[in-house]
Amino acid sequence: MARHTDDLEHLLAVVAVTLNDDGTLIDANAGFRRIAKMEGKDPIGTQVSGFFLQPTFATLAHTHGRAEEEIYRGLLTVGDHVTTRTLRARVWRLDSRLRVVAEYDVDELERLNEKMLDLNRDYANTQLELTQANLKLRQREAQIVALTLTDSLTGLGNRRRFKQAMATEINRAQRTGGSLCAFMADLDHFKRVNDTFGHEVGDKVLAAFGDLLRRNIRSTEVAARIGGEEFVVLMPHTDLAESMATAERIRAATTAMRVGPISDGVTVSFGVAKLAADEDGDAFMRRVDKALYEAKHSGRDRVVAG
């Protein structure tokens, strides 16, 4: 039995090796040469006792047995302490020699492979859960930001939203040379509505007017409630005549609007202005507010340009 049979000689998935009791090689197949990194070499006579890690070669060599008797069956770990492999092995005593035949533990490999698949699935599921959690977190953050910029009664922007939009639009208009108009609207005699019909009806009037604004402006325009019954609309890329026409359309629609027990309707006054060259936001809104003041003091229910 000095030489391996041909069916083991060239197998790479099986380790077949014959050794002297001192750990020198007598014969080794292709599988052993590969795992011991001896490919392309003649390993015969090489000392390889240190290659056997668990059980050690000394343990195997000092296990007594009759000739041709199997002295070990079980897992065999081999390697160089850096790269190791655990094989399923059988060892026979051949007088003063040992014969080792080992193969990869297919069952163990399958269990390890299944465990790796489980780990990969768990990792993928965890990544998916993290992605979904991050998406929900970003959506929630966006909702929170939106709430801080929204008037809860009308659903329009609030004063903070208006100030942000005004800074952006003034910067855009001055950079591009485009036009920017704004109008301010104030519901006439609104205190009388609250005093006569109650604040619940007053809130319904405010909500109805906010909805009317939303339906009568373009998506590029920004409407906000900046006070109790005071609203403002920023109108980028719009000239003064078009802005006044929009305000007049909304004024007429408000007059026709009916809310609850208010049989004679509600009116609204408008002040309109166009941003002047090099004008800042405060000066711009002072002109809009002044135009609104003139509309209020010249009879209400009208549109005045500033």
Low-confidence runs of at least 5 consecutive residues: 1-5
Note the run of SSEs as H and E. HEEHEHEEEHHEHHEEHEHE
Helix content: 40-55%
Gyration radius (Cα, Å) is 44 Å
Across the major sheet, the strand order is 2-1-6-5-4-3
Descriptive notes:
The chain has 306 residues and is of the alpha+beta class. It has 3 domains: 6-104, Beta-Lactamase; 107-148; 159-305, 2-Layer Sandwich (Alpha-Beta Plaits). It is 44% helix and 24% strand. The protein contains 9 helices and 11 strands. It has helices at 6-9, 30-35, 57-61, 106-148, 159-176, 190-197, 199-215, 240-256, 281-297; strands at residues 14-20, 25-28, 52-54, 69-79, 84-94, 97-104, 180-187, 222-225, 230-236, 268-274, 303-305. It has a 6-stranded antiparallel β-sheet. It has a 5-stranded mixed β-sheet with strand order 8-9-7-10-11, with helices on both faces. A hairpin with a 2-residue loop joins strand 5 (84-94) and strand 6 (97-104). It is rod-shaped, with a radius of gyration of 44 Å.
